[in-house]
């Protein structure tokens, strides 16, 4: 049980780390795309549309990944809770004398 809780805790920390890296990367993409859109001239319509498309696609992908991360973190929380309950049940039944 302790090893399982340790592994669940490690997995949860990895998902949190991935979430922070994802937010950092998406922020950088938003900043670069926004700066590119603002700095392009009026004659560069295709470049502006490409930057706008990249901004839109990165936002949609980041939203989907954040949803997946949230779902995985909830599942790991649920597994940890079930493991703790099972461990508590084992401890309470191990301390009782066998019933006849």
**What proportion of the residues form beta strands (DSSP E)?**
under 5%
The DSSP helix count reads 2
Question: Low-confidence runs (pLDDT<50, min 5 residues)?
Answer: none
Structure summary, number of beta strands: 0
**Kindly, what is the distance between the CA atoms of the first and last residues, rounded to a whole number of angstroms?**
28 Å
Helix percent reads: over 70%
Tell me the overall shape.
Answer: rod-shaped
The rounded Rg comes to 24 Å
Features:
rod-shaped, 100 residues, single chain, mainly alpha
Give a structural overview:
The chain is mainly α. The chain has helices spanning 2-39, 45-95. Helix 1 (2-39) runs antiparallel to helix 2 (45-95). The radius of gyration is 24 Å and the shape is rod-shaped. The model has no long low-confidence stretch (mean pLDDT 88).
């Amino acid at each position: 049980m302790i090893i399982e809780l340790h592994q669940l805790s490690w997995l949860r920390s990895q998902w949190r780390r991935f979430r922070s890296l994802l937010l950092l990367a998406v922020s950088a993409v938003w900043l670069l795309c926004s700066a590119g859109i603002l700095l392009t001239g009026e004659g560069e319509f295709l470049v502006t549309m490409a930057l706008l498309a990249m901004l839109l696609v990165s936002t949609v992908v980041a939203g989907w990944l954040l949803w997946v991360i949230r779902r995985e973190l909830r599942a790991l929380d649920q597994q940890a809770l079930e493991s703790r309950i099972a461990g508590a049940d084992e401890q309470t039944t191990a301390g009782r004398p066998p019933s006849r």
